[in-house]
Amino acid sequence: MMKEETADFELTFFERLVKSNPNFVDALIPLAEAYTRKGKYEEGLKIDKKLARLKKQDPTVHYNLACSLALVGEKEDALSALERAIKLGYRDFDHMRKDSDLKVLREDPRFKLLISKNQ
Fold first, then answer.
1. Cβ within 8 Å of residue 63, ≥6 positions away
2. Predicted TM-score (pTM) of this structure
3. For residues 33 and 25, is the Cβ–Cβ distance under 8 A?
């Protein structure tokens, strides 16, 4: 199966699982990732917001929310979600600096300060 077909299959598969069980976290996480890979950032953001409500204390969920917010240009909310992820224990600062999803934040002094004060 080609990469595009695999992504389409994943989307269909996880959408069906979520349709029958809307709070199925183990299907919501890969569904959000699949939407993002397909460039469907708004759909991914919607799922990431739901995950953040379902898993309020999960640092990775909040990091992914920050990425989705950054991808749709919501810098303020992205920085807030990133700060929450760090407060909850997200510590992969090297990844944060390189993550293309966060590109829109990289030159923001608040992004640099957030990383430097928490490392």
1. 81, 82, 85, 90, 96
2. 0.94
3. no
